[in-house]
Amino acid sequence: MTWSTLSPLLGVVLGGLVSWLAQHSSGRAAERAEQWRSARDCAEARRGERLAHLVDFLSAVQEAERVAVDHYQHHVSDERWQERARQTADRMWVAQKTIHMLCTPEVNEAARRLAFAVQNVLREGPDDLGEPQDEKVWAAIRPSRREFLDVVRTRLH
Q: Minimal CA–CA distance to 126: which of 139, 114, 112?
């Protein structure tokens, strides 16, 4: 008689336990999925932020190239050019320091090499003083820029 009384109670307890385990397991799976989505969204946002700073750096490098071309191709060297050269170099280095904070060491090193190449051309000019100077400026910077772009492409994916 005791068995017939306990049997339904045992069934209710086991059913409740199984139900609780299923809900608990389902809740944990939903939590993990939400954490994964949140981590993915955060990583994508950070990737976008890094990409924006990399583009800003490239924009600063491009402006510094134009300043160098103005000086060596078009023989501009007045006070206004000197101020423009200082401002673009400063902007480029600030952008490089931002890359240092946000990106991998490989990307940072490639950015530093590019910034030094641009700064050297801006200060010293291209090694080859033949004409046309604009092409000589670009040729002096091209290897560092190519390396930077290649490193960014492999690290940003």
A: 139
Q: Kindly report the average pLDDT of the chain as a whole number.
A: 87
Model confidence over 51-83: pLDDT tens digits? 999 999 999 999 999 999 998 888 888 899 999
Nearest to 141 by CA among 72, 40, 50, 41: 72
Q: How far apart are CA 144 and CA 121, in angstroms?
A: 12
Could you tell me which of 64, 62, 66, 54 has the C-alpha nearest to residue 148? Answer: 54
Question: Which residue, 57, 67, 63, is CA-closest to 133?
Answer: 67
Look at residue 1 in the predicted model and tell me its pLDDT.
53
Q: What is the DSSP string of 66-112?
A: HHHHHHHTT---SHHHHHHHHHHHHHHHHHHHHHHHHS-HHHHHHHH
pLDDT tens figures, 13-53? 777 777 887 787 788 877 877 778 877 877 787 889 999 99
Q: What angle do CA 148, 131, 110 make, to 5 degrees?
A: 10
DSSP secondary structure letters along 135-149? HHHHHHHHHHHHHHH
